[in-house]
Design goal:
By secondary structure, the protein is α+β, with helices and mostly antiparallel strands. The protein has 13 helices and 21 strands. About 30% of the residues lie in helices and about 25% in strands. The strands form 5 sheets. The protein has a 7-stranded mixed beta sheet with strand order 8-7-16-17-18-15-19, sandwiched between helices. Helix 2 runs parallel beside helix 13 (about 395-415).
């Protein structure tokens, strides 16, 4: 640890997920002394990857969108060795599988978008108008819109009930982690915009490579792993080992459940839960890196991860990821495997379950009217940030951390504390 970071920090940031990493990085770049305290043995929070028997297992199925402004600002995308999904999905509808793709990136799929094939002419016009508007207008225009549910927004845009039910609802259920499309339309429009303008990918080293790259930018001595915080005190924070770390500013950048334990007065939204199953097989059921969604609701989505990024599985082995809403009660895994046999059109009895991850608090429930950003100040010298304070996305997590850093810097500066000095 450098001499600079042996001295008492100006700010303590609790939690080294994306939000805490962004906050700590920005505070360090502004010249403040920072201690980033993480209770676990690694960075990333929910965005981590486990290595097991040659497999890369993300803690819940996650994708990486290249269009987010915070991502472009903070990361060298080439260093992540990103592997893209195809620019579209296969939706398993009551009438059978339907391939929907961006014809500007997947020209071979353009035929499906001819009127009458999948969509009516009216639906095509409605979806095209919605897509162009979201892609072209500045993101700030979304903030000014009257908020409503995504279901209401799609209906008001002229999309038919059948297309919403059979195609959009199955796809968006996996994005929002809820199947009623009650999520804020503001968030929907930002998601739709990001998908049109960017690519969905996986890092070759797993999704955990994203926070790991961010952590590489921290000065020596800032990040302190396995240092759980049990209380926010008047002077700073109390550690599990009984030690206290004083600081003028304390930023709670944990998930919302941990945040409410540290800040009992904090009000947080409900959270969504998802379970992801990983299966290994000797022969992959499809040969393309495509996400498939399920109109029956038995599963949210499934894909052959090893076709997206071959590094996710040992040579000669396929790795299939499948997500469902909620937890993993007894017997559910068997039903999932049965549905996968129908979706992939193959015998899944020989598939081996490698792991199952249930992620509670995977996303905040973003009900309208949902503010896309809010202050992180909750009291003198006390701050809270996270995706539940912005939007449930990589962009939202990073942006909330960045806002916390700006507000901490402004407040410390008003107190007459020069950057780098002892508080």
């Amino acid at each position: 640890m450098t001499d600079e970071h042996r001295r008492a920090p100006n700010a303590v940031v609790v939690g080294a997920g994306l939000t805490g990493l962004a906050c700590a990085l920005d505070l360090c770049r502004a010249g403040w002394r920072v201690a980033l305290l993480e209770g676990s043995d690694g960075v990333g929070g929910r965005m981590r990857t486990d290595r097991r028997d040659g497999f890369l297992l993300d803690r819940g199925f996650q994708v990486f969108n290249t269009s987010y402004p915070q991502v472009k600002r903070r990361l060298d995308l080439r260093s992540l060795r990103l592997r893209p999904f195809t620019a579209g999905v296969v939706a398993h509808t009551p009438d059978g599988p339907v391939r929907i793709a961006d014809p500007t990136r997947e020209p071979g799929a353009a035929g499906a978008l001819l009127p009458g094939r999948v969509f009516s002419a009216r639906d095509l016009v409605a979806l095209a108008a919605l897509t162009v508007r979201d892609a072209v207008l500045p993101a700030s225009a979304v903030v000014r819109r009257r908020d409503e549910s995504t279901s209401a927004a799609l209906t008001r845009a002229g999309v038919s009930d059948a297309v919403i039910a059979d195609i959009l609802r199955p796809f968006l259920s996996g994005v929002f982690l809820e199947d009623r499309l009650e999520t804020s339309a503001r968030f929907f429009h930002l998601v739709w915009r990001s998908m049109v303008r960017g690519s969905l990918c996986l890092p070759a080293e797993g999704i955990g490579a994203v926070p790991a790259r961010l952590a590489d930018g921290l000065p020596d001595g800032v990040l302190r792993l396995e240092r759980p915080v049990v209380e926010v005190t008047d002077a700073g924070v109390l550690l599990e080992d009984g030690g206290e770390m004083p600081a003028r500013a304390v930023v709670v950048a944990t998930d919302q459940a941990a945040a409410t334990r540290l800040l009992p007065q904090l009000t947080v939204p409900d959270a969504r839960t998802v379970t992801t199953y990983y299966h290994a097989t000797d022969s992959t059921p499809i040969t393309e890196p495509t996400l498939m969604v399920d109109g029956t609701g038995t599963i949210l989505n499934t894909c052959v991860l090893s076709r997206v990024a071959p590094t996710y599985a040992p040579p000669g082995t396929g790795l299939i990821s499948t997500s469902v809403l909620g937890k993993d009660p007894p017997g559910r895994a068997r039903g999932v495997l049965g549905r996968l046999a129908e979706v992939y059109g193959t015998d899944t009895s020989g598939w081996h379950q490698v792991a199952a991850y249930t992620v509670e608090g995977a996303l905040p429930a973003m009900l309208p009217p949902w503010p896309l950003s809010r202050t992180t100040r909750i009291g003198p010298g006390r701050y809270v940030c996270g995706d539940y304070r912005a939007t449930g996305s990589v962009q939202g997590a990073l942006a909330s951390g960045a806002r916390a850093a700006r507000e901490v810097s402004a407040d410390l500066g008003r107190q007459g504390t020069p950057p780098g000095s002892r508080p």
